[in-house]
Amino acid sequence: MKPMLERKRRARINRCLDELKDLMVTALQAEGENVSKLEKADILELTVRHLHSLKRRGQLVLKPEMSYAERFRAGFAQCATEVSQFITSATVAANAMQRQGPVDPQAGARLLQHLSNCIRRLEAPAVQPPVVQPQPIAPGGVARPTPVQAVPPVLPTQAPQIQRTLERGLKRLAEEPIDVEMLDTKRVYPPSPPHSPASETDSAQSMWRPW
Question: Model pTM?
Fold first, then answer.
């Protein structure tokens, strides 16, 4: 039983050393060194030296993964930018061809303003509630809590860039002329009920009089 376990253990060690050798040869070639033959001790020594070099350059630290909230904010910001670019380009192209575009200019402006407000709310961190610190109790007295002022929220650096993109879209829509006659032709008004003098007579007869 023991010889079989020992053979499996040695096989695992050799397999890992072979993989580590391939990784180290590739890394050293990227740094300008050409190494082909390496013994087991050389592989381990070069690996330790390479890791120390990465640590000194600050490249050994793993980047933290984005949280769900950060990924949602990034995705929402990207979608808002795409919507702004689509509405602006569609409105400009429609006005250049003198026809009604796929998006009503006023509705597009309201949508961009709404997205701008949503971005502002998403990028602003939640305000922490004030922390209450109790005062030391005096002899025969009652402790009174002292409220601590909350730190005002600070907007991240990504928010101004997205805000500028949406504001440019709003400004572009405001500069584009709106064909009022074309909008009026597409507007449908409900038909007015027919005017009948008999209805006025019936309403006058049905009116209650005190005499």
Answer: 0.37
- For the chain, count helices (H), then strands (E): 7, 2
Cβ contacts of residue 70 below 8 Å, gap of 6+?
none
Beta bridge partners of 133: 146
Farthest-apart Cα atoms in the chain, separation: 123
Buried b or exposed e, range 104-126, using 16+ CB within 10 angstroms: bbeebbebbeebbeebeebbeee
pLDDT above 90 covers what percent of the chain?
3
Distance CA 76, CA 159 (A): 12
Of 40-49, 164-173, 180-189, the poorest mean pLDDT is in: 180-189
- CA 179 → CA 91, 101, 111, 161, 174, distances in Å? 12, 11, 20, 32, 13
Q: What's the DSSP call for residue 135?
A: P
Query: Per-residue confidence at 12, pLDDT binned at 50, 70, 90?
Result: very high
Residue 147 backbone dihedrals phi, psi, to 5 degrees: -70, 140
Q: Which residue did the predictor score with more confidence, 90 or 195?
A: 90
